[in-house]
Amino acid sequence: xxxxxxxxxxxxxxxxxxxxxxxxxxxxxxxxxxxxxxxxxxxxxxxxxxxxxxxxxxxxxxxxxxxxxxxxxxxxxxxxxxxxxxxxxxxxxxxxxxxxxxxxxxxxxxxxxxxxxxxxxxxxxxxxxxxxxxxxxxxxxxxxxxxxxxxxxxxxxxxxxxxxxxxxxxxxxxxxxxxxxxxxxxxxxxxxxxxxxxxxxxxxxxxxxxxxxxxxxxxxxxxxxxxxxxxxxxxxxxxxxxxxxxxxxxxxxxxxxxxxxxxxxxxxxxxxxxxxxxxxxxxxxxxxxxxxxxxxxxxxxxxxxxxxxxxxxxxxxxxxxxxxxxxxxxxxxxxxxxxxxxxxxxxxxxxxxxxxxxxxxxxxxxxxxxxxxxxxxxxxxxxxxxxxxxxxxxxxxxxxxxxxxxxxxxxxxxxxxxxxxxxxxxxxxxxxxxxxxxxxxxxxxxxxxxxxxxxxxxxxxxxxxxxxxxxxxxxxxxxxxxxxxxxxxxxxxxxxxxxxxxxxxxxxxxxxxxxxxxxxxxxxxxxxxxxxxxxxxxxxxxxxxxxxxxxxxxxxxxxxxxxxxxxxxxxxxxxxxxxxxxxxxxxxxxxxxxxxxxxxxxxxxxxxxxxxxxxxxxxxxxxxxxxxxxxxxxxxxxxxxxxxxxxxxxxxxxxxxxxxxxxxxxxxxxxxxxxxxxxxxxxxxxxxxxxxxxxxxxxxxxxxxxxxxxxxxxxxxxxxxxxxxxxxxxxxxxxxxxxxxxxxxxxxxxxxxxxxxxxxxxxxxxxxxxxxxxxxxxxxxxxxxxxxxxxxxxxxxxxxxxxxxxxxxxxxxxxxxxxxxxxxxxxxxxxxxxxxxxxxxxxxxxxxxxxxxxxxxxxxxxxxxxxxxxxxxxxxxxxxxxxxxxxxxxxxxxxxxxxxxxxxxxxxxxxxxxxxxxxxxxxxxxxxxxxxxxxxxxxxxxxxxxxxxxxxxxxxxxxxxxxxxxxxxxxxxxxxxxxxxxxxxxxxxxxxxxxxxxxxxxxxxxxxxxxxxxxxxxxxxxxxxxxxxxxxxxxxxxxxxxxxxxxxxxxxxxxxxxxxxxxxxxxxx
Length: 1069
Known about the structure:
Elements (H helix, E strand, L loop, with lengths): L1 H18 L1 H9 L13 H14 L4 E10 L2 E10 L13 E6 L7 H14 L10 H8 L2 E6 L4 H8 L31 H4 L9 H13 L3 E6 L2 E6 L11 H16 L6 E4 H4 L8 H7 L5 E8 L9 H5 L4 H21 L26 E2 L6 E2 L8 H8 L4 H19 L12 E2 L6 E5 L6 E5 L14 H20 L10 H12 L5 H11 L2 H14 L7 H12 L6 H15 L5 H11 L2 H13 L6 H13 L3 H13 L6 H13 L3 H13 L6 H13 L3 H13 L6 H13 L3 H13 L6 H13 L5 H8 L6 H13 L3 H14 L5 H13 L3 H10 L9 H13 L3 H14 L5 H13 L3 H13 L6 H13 L3 H13 L6 H13 L3 H13 L6 H13 L3 H13 L6 H12 L22
Parallel strand pairs: 3-4, 3-5, 5-8, 6-7
Antiparallel strand pairs: 1-2, 2-4, 6-8, 9-13, 10-11, 12-13
Helix pairs in contact: 1-15, 3-4, 4-13, 9-13, 16-17, 16-18, 17-19, 18-19, 18-20, 19-20, 20-21, 20-22, 22-23, 22-24, 24-25, 24-26, 26-27, 26-28, 28-29, 28-30, 29-30, 30-31, 30-32, 32-34, 34-35, 34-36, 35-36, 36-37, 36-38, 37-38, 38-39, 38-40, 40-41, 40-42, 41-42, 42-43, 42-44, 43-44, 44-45, 44-46, ...
GO molecular function, one term: metallocarboxypeptidase activity
Organism: Linum tenue
């Protein structure tokens, strides 16, 4: 009878379906969009790229892979931690903590790509436009961010194998329904295919790992990222209300800001249960808010295509074209960084946790229970749509057809319950959960059975049978305690022997350590030195225990990531020990060693290990080896390994391709770089903005400026937003070809797109305009980028223009900076002072020096010395004297260099008494005369005829421990020569040689001139021979003296015109 009613119901449903089958024929005929491999990474490639990113930025990123499992089901989860400053254990509790989860549903690929983009921006390999990175880095210094890039790795692999609509994990459980808050409640529209909550809260290894991570990390912000629509949700999901009080207001305020600035008011804002139209029970966000007490817990829905067919899941949940893909990632990356920046401002000072509105209800399984099975049927022949998709279909139908469609859905649900084994298209019902039980009794007919189900043995989060978890924790605690007591011994706590305590503990449990447990203990210690100690005592703890590949590999990894100064020697020792003990490593061991060593002889040793251990290189091994050679700046070997990798059929990821391209380009390996770029296209590895930037640089190096423009336009057409590096690279190509018009056009586009120019941008443009004589266009470019003109940019322009000799332009920009900014830039002021002094505009320099305090620039001794030097050079002695008096009376205090300038300046104009007085003031001050002070005074005295006083100062400086230099000797030799004391000059020259002070060509020229003037021709010839023997090259002055010697060699005496010594300090002309 039941079969008859079911058959009649089927006929009625089919007849109704015929009435509007044409409505759905379009839906059924739509082709299923496959995964776009050019846009999306596979899960393994994504995790490899993240691992590579962590390896390149160990100062910011760390990565941990957590394995967990139960009932034969295993799951792995990767956790990446971002922290800009290295912290000790527990120090991150003082920081603002953010926990992010992506890829909780396998079909939502775009969320995991967002995770990779955020990590790339955090590690500064990609950049957000219009962000002051220095200011933002100061914000990031206060944060610790933990990210799970692919929470549901097993479910993601099912999607990659072709099940594009799969959202559950590897054994059919929806991870966002497996949490304890309001778990298991089923709404009227409950779909077991979509929302299977599991057999109990936290029945799945993935949710167990996430719970443990959340409780230990204790975040201030939790964000669970999904796709399927555009929404910003706050608690609650299991009811249509939001939390009460200020906590709710702060969350809503933050979400409204994100919606306005980055979602452009497209996103739905509110509670998940009150906004979507259905309630969800057992979700992660409700657990985070109610149980973990996270103050701000959110669920973000980042993308959805409501026009997609219900069966076309990839298109419904993920962008399928380059432009949309990049727009979505750019907008949501900016949204997350907005939260990083403003999230802490929405918290009170104590970072208080949200008030509890519910408690977690965990029940321990009993030792046994009677079997009572109530499971939901699972249809394997269907490709279902979510409730959101059903609503999207209903909105496209009129009233009558909508009612018919709903009736059809109800009919289909009833057919799933009925056991129509023989009706075509309806398969046998099967249960989604299986049990193993012992039958205890049966009815006489055998139709009723009683069975006893024994619950599984409790497992710890790592998957070990208890008490293994207690073993790991206890051993870790004992080791840490003994290390602490040994480092801080006291009478109450004497030094402990960790081996004895551990041996006693293990013997009391009669437990033998396994290699996996040893690995976990070493990892939990969080100390490389402690891990090494434990590694050494393990064999003595358990006589049957022997270290194997896993324990050696774990210790090598711990040492390689440590800050131990001798870590490379320790790793080499571990490898030697493995050889000695006959332990054969794995490919993971070799990969870790390649990453640890990264250069020269050690890399060759890693390749030898592959042969000795009979290992086959994997794609990841090849990639590690390529990058290791590139980091050691050996692009030749890196390219050679890449060629071998191609022959084996492997390919690099986009980051490794870019690294190889950049290294080859920098080393001018043009042909090899072009070959690698062609390989990228053949391997369907879509170039990103960094690839295009490298190719632009490559084209510029080869002189193919049109090719560089082609690459730049292609980058724009594919939806990429060039960063400052890309713009500067393109500008560099245009400036090298002196294409002023295109350079200015590109600069204007750059500013229009919101990309802030930096100093290098202006450097390129400034040099271009100066080279072609069009510096007047610099004003036009400054006007274009007016909103980005800062004091530092003005200062750079002033400095550069001054150095290039364009004093008037430098002065004009300095005046603009002076007028438009309340605070001056010290570097720019120094450049302007230097420019004025070099041009002899000492009055303007003195005036500027006096006005600097008005702009908040503190004048210092160096600035005054610059102006004093110019005054001395231009012999403006009254101003020189006045400024010196100002320094003594008002500051800044003179230094030794100040006194040296004054001595030289007074000596230059013949004011010997003033020079001597200044020298005496120097001796009586806190400053100490140096060799330049004595050289200046000796030259002043000698030039003005007081050779005896000059010689006395020479002896005085030697008595005070100052060793005369070549300038001192040359000055005094010239003074003796001028006063015809040739013997003294020659004696001083010999003394100079005896003291180990080697004369230069100037010294030889002075003495040659002295000997020639006194008629000592033979001595002059001998001196010239010594000059040649000492490897010095004669200059024009030397040859002039030799010419006089030759012309006057037959005369005993020659009359010549006397001339003073010119130049300062010493000159031979």
